Amino acid sequence: MKIAALQADPTLAVSIEQTLRLNGHQCTRYLSGRALIGALRGRSFDLLMLDCDTPGLPALEVLAWVRRTLGNEMPVMLTGASNEEGFVAACLAQGADSYVPKPLRTAELAARVLALLRRARPASADCDLEHGPFRFATAERQVWVQGKPVLLAPKEFDLAVLLFRNLGSLVLRQTMVDQVWRYHMDAASRTVDSHLSRVRTKLALWPHNGVRLSSVYGLGSRLDAA
């Protein structure tokens, strides 16, 4: 899994990176909150680790941006020197999925990361999807709208499933490229837009069907209940 770590302490960063890589993850380190936010505008990650002791833009402000812009599906773990109950409670109340106090224990850190990723990607990922008049049989790669079958091309089907699985959350263009096309392609490619347009038209993703597909300029698209 791809993990982004906001961590300014070089010694701690090395420990975190080694722990994650030994457990099969890719780790990209960012020295500032602004650098991480800039990266999130064009890159997709499976989990974020934010150090509350990083100077500059506070980790809680980065967290607020993530929840406001990317939604609630992205797992976010906070770390920090404080283990004060009120501070930890505030972090969780503001949208963190987990808080790990320092000093970090590598085995515990690896286990917490695995737990968050498992929660975000349940084993039932291939089960059928239903929302309002939309029903997907993912194993058979079939979709119905208002009980009527709709024929989608393979990439259109994958893109539609990705949008419905992230209903209410922003799906980055890079995430679409990574999970639908699975090969190197510029996230700004018009191929993404043309597929989104066809999915919108074929599935009638309009408010009268209870959903609205909108674009966030330069970032991605989000499907919301209307």
TrEMBL record:
Which molecular-function annotations from GO does this UniProt entry contain? phosphorelay response regulator activity; transcription cis-regulatory region binding
Q: Which residues form a coiled coil?
A: none
Which residues belong to any copy of the Response regulatory domain? Answer: 2-117
GO annotation, biological process: regulation of DNA-templated transcription
Gene3D superfamilies with a match to the protein in the record = 3.40.50.2300, Winged helix-like DNA-binding domain superfamily/Winged helix DNA-binding domain
Q: Mind listing where the DNA-binding region sits, in residue ranges?
A: 126-225
Residues covered by the OmpR/PhoB-type domain: 126-225
Residues with 4-aspartylphosphate modification = D51
Q: What is this protein called?
A: Putative RESPONSE REGULATOR
